[in-house]
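Components:
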Amino acid sequence: MQRVRYYWDYLGLDEVLAAQRLASSEDGGDPAHDELLFIVTHQAFELWFKQILWELDAVIGTLSQAPVDERDMGQVLHRLERINEIQPLLVQQFAVLETMTPLDFLDFRDQLIPASGFQSLQFRLIENRLGLDPAKRMKIQGSHYTSRLSREHAARVEASESEPTLLGALDAWLARTPFLRFGAFDFWAAYRDAVTTMIERDRQIVATNANLDEVSRQQQLDAFETTVETFATLFDRERWEQLRAQGRRRLSHEAFLAALLISLYRDEPAFHTPHRMLRTLVDLDIGFHAFRNAHAQLVHRTIGGRIGTGGTAGHEYLEAAARRHRVFTDLFDLATYSVPRDELPELPDDVRDQLRFRFQPS
Amino acid sequence: MQRVRYYWDYLGLDEVLAAQRLASSEDGGDPAHDELLFIVTHQAFELWFKQILWELDAVIGTLSQAPVDERDMGQVLHRLERINEIQPLLVQQFAVLETMTPLDFLDFRDQLIPASGFQSLQFRLIENRLGLDPAKRMKIQGSHYTSRLSREHAARVEASESEPTLLGALDAWLARTPFLRFGAFDFWAAYRDAVTTMIERDRQIVATNANLDEVSRQQQLDAFETTVETFATLFDRERWEQLRAQGRRRLSHEAFLAALLISLYRDEPAFHTPHRMLRTLVDLDIGFHAFRNAHAQLVHRTIGGRIGTGGTAGHEYLEAAARRHRVFTDLFDLATYSVPRDELPELPDDVRDQLRFRFQPS
Amino acid sequence: MQRVRYYWDYLGLDEVLAAQRLASSEDGGDPAHDELLFIVTHQAFELWFKQILWELDAVIGTLSQAPVDERDMGQVLHRLERINEIQPLLVQQFAVLETMTPLDFLDFRDQLIPASGFQSLQFRLIENRLGLDPAKRMKIQGSHYTSRLSREHAARVEASESEPTLLGALDAWLARTPFLRFGAFDFWAAYRDAVTTMIERDRQIVATNANLDEVSRQQQLDAFETTVETFATLFDRERWEQLRAQGRRRLSHEAFLAALLISLYRDEPAFHTPHRMLRTLVDLDIGFHAFRNAHAQLVHRTIGGRIGTGGTAGHEYLEAAARRHRVFTDLFDLATYSVPRDELPELPDDVRDQLRFRFQPS
Amino acid sequence: MQRVRYYWDYLGLDEVLAAQRLASSEDGGDPAHDELLFIVTHQAFELWFKQILWELDAVIGTLSQAPVDERDMGQVLHRLERINEIQPLLVQQFAVLETMTPLDFLDFRDQLIPASGFQSLQFRLIENRLGLDPAKRMKIQGSHYTSRLSREHAARVEASESEPTLLGALDAWLARTPFLRFGAFDFWAAYRDAVTTMIERDRQIVATNANLDEVSRQQQLDAFETTVETFATLFDRERWEQLRAQGRRRLSHEAFLAALLISLYRDEPAFHTPHRMLRTLVDLDIGFHAFRNAHAQLVHRTIGGRIGTGGTAGHEYLEAAARRHRVFTDLFDLATYSVPRDELPELPDDVRDQLRFRFQPS
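Structure:
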């Protein structure tokens, strides 16, 4: 017999739409009107978290192949962009939830205790899948970040710390770039000259800026030395890896150089898609930053300076997490190492040739 | 024993996150990657539809009391605004779904047939709860709009046609406004004079506009007569109700006059909240219009000119529905009847006094 | 002497911020508070229109080279995406302007007459630069669309009708694609078979859909014949060009086939950027559609059914223009011609090879 | 002779559209393509800043009357909401500007030096008009925040520090609320009991939360004492004003109590509009926070860790300013003092009666 597909059944709406069980009316009391909004919003978050995990797993899977078929890079980019399209949705969901005023929330808040958003298994998995450094994790009231989870969920989250990550897969893919070694052409020496010129020009700006008093000029010149130091690590694998060991860099030295190359020569056809991918990863970081900030803001407005239902310090914790829980900080820093187009060393013809398509445009 | 509330259980995530069953892998095949997105997006739609129905029911309930306690009007407005905050979310969900390209969709589209978004029970209920005129309903391929629904769902939707609607509750609330009759002061006569002055000025614009050639001037002057006719119905309950019987007006004559009064004298304290409510209802109409347009656009991009999985004509149907399925068109028309502030008849002191708070501002 | 650049002077703020001259206070009267918003919003529109024209000119310039260096395609895409990023800004500007209520507008509206948004020189130039078909232009009250412009502006707009357009440049670029002729491999025959199979399956859906009564089934089967006809034109240059002469197609036959090829085989590296470009052009069309709709909606809310300051029929004109003034309709239709991935004819190895980069991924 | 108003002239487009003078082509060189975007975006910012100042001045003017006619409060709210509608526009403008990649910016960046966004006169005026505490101002590289401005602009900004502010006008308006003294009814004693009950319940949550280990429990209980202290200041004008002298509170004791009253009893008709106004002020703070964050993010992406054109430390400065430059922090804290609806002391009938309209709903 032929199966007749029906919208309601296909979408499992019997289960999905029965899963809003208001705690406020559990013991026979009147439901708190706004509790439905609270539940629906969180369920929608979790649906989208599932989708994000699905895309992350697919992308990590593709990037982990060696070599990655260039044909697949369009899809990798496309799926990362999809996550980026989901992110404003999550922020807007907080805007909807903000229509619940403090008084509305107090109508059912006590019944949620000690449940809390800190217990979102899937969000923790997303963070780990992206490649969040466990050492940068905020503690929750002095306890481990999995301490609020059920034993089973805590185990899954902890296991995920050692599973493949997007950052790791990206690193491996970048480090394999065949363009880091350019035969006879010493690209990096030429680039280093260009950077040095540019830094010197920046230093001149400080030295001659008529708007600066002497104290602040000296402060800036001192700060400048730090910048020069930072640049130096770019050409010194050992110092780079030291910074990495300290958690101040996440990408390997080779991967970072590859990312820099892609960023500088993004006009070459072979770098069009990779360059977009690097920008999209920055967008992803910004997107989760915006999500955490929106959460912090909601908590601030809704409970003010009170403690959260999970016994946490509320919005300040969330704001701090927004600042610390970034993954692709190295990619933000690519801008630091840009040089103006007309000062970029020109690629040798044979290298540039390799970065084109096989066909001739007509 | 104390119940320990846990996020996962409270939100019913066991059920919600198990309800994504991919048709593409039902018979043991590989899942189509994008089918999860398709399912998650539609489930999120249905969650928000449930929330919208919840708010609509509450608002209709409050507005249906006689009299409505003015204390409750803040909440009525607040809940309508919440729906309006949900609407951009729905539009953005289509933007996410648009990341599914035609080829991605074809990977599993055939397996959905004949399921279709036309089978969304909850969306049909929302339309009826708002007060969509059944006579304005688009047919689906010549059949009744409930013809794609299961027997049970069709029955629920049809029953909802005779249940209380937001439009109806609004009408009743407006018609009860105590300010329509102003004792000795003949407000409407004074207002009619003001309108007449304004119309005459508009006619002069046409008559003397140097940019118009004679043909288009005459066209416009003819069109003007229609406007004058329309104005006339405002002061003639019988003709108004004729238009209403033809479906060209939805609000009763008294309700419309009350809405107009609120709109013209919105600066009076007693009209602050009602005036916002009227504007929010227009926003709601626009919000659902945007939702339907976003749907049409998604369909256009994803299946082009092909027929939909439910056997419908696709995006053209949806665009036509966006244009026709409006509910609060009368409120848009309030602008037609505005007159400049300095030509508005002044309210008599005793009327104006009634529209203030009892306390004296200090 | 060294020039010291100052923010205010660099941005010409002396001129820009002095250019808000309120008509309402021109003759010494009190300014209408909301007139500043009206002016500022329109000036911001015109600033962004200038930016859009700047990007369009650059893109048309690049695409008009023969051949286009593939290195430049990243930039072409990037600039089109920038326009697409500007579009939501324009829509949001209408949302800001909607905070001006009908009464607020009436405070100064009469003084604007007969000035009107129809007189935006730059928006008309944008439409023509995109490639809007002059034959599809809405008349304004029976007059030519330039009839409201000053003589000088009308001349510039009319001249722009014969200047290079984005549509034209795209067509030329697509038509030069070297992949339309595949040596011995008869791609189009294989593709035609695949399409025929798919159409037949769609017909079966209609023929066997248990939800359809006989009348609507027959209607749909008839409609189906039209679809088959449409498909047929794809393989028949002559009939295609007939449709084009009637304005029902805009792209040349060759250009459309190239776009279809890119769309079907977008996974090939050489098609990554072109495929994004085609999707972005659809986004652009949608973006201007949204802009026009937002304008229509603003007018509807602000003046209702009254005539506009320029003597036009108001929101209905604008809604109709939103529907008619589309440029890249052919690209929407690409979805119509998609076939599932596993039914796509496989590209011969030598063709596929040409679509890759010269380097080998490692 | 009759003046014929023309769109282009009315909007001053001759001046506005001639004010984009590219520094990159000043000396006859090729223009840097992206410099136009840079200029247009900043000019659009300044147009909107002018509009925001216009609205702020109007609102401060109205709120500074004593008494404020309740009729005017609708307009006050409306104008604040308009600013709030402009804010997402400003954020989206940064998104447009982010399409300028680091390389694109370097094409003309050096020519801007030492001009900088820190020199936006109008943004500084906005901050002061809102009521930003001068003591909380970030220094710019150790110098006063006006040090980058021209002498004339610096003088205007410094003068604005002593002009009326929105915060000040709000404070005065709140402090005049006639509802703070309720005759015989000792509202604050009853409220204090309710708060004490609620705090004690929160303390129990901490004391009995099975998820807490002993160390973090003790931490939280200690933190709790701080909360209790904070609550205590609410009922002790002297300690409140001490906090205020330290900059930890901005509103006067009386104004804060009035705001709290409005917030707790927002359902009363007389509080509908004031309650919205308080929420909108929080939205405004959040909106400027989002603006500063978007700016920081743009700078981070575009120049990385380099110094800004104005010789500043770049994105870190901006992020810190986003956190510190808040004005309405007291209003965020209202949530801290909420109590559940069913524990709120009931208002005595005579008080409640004063908060209603004079007319009887029918």
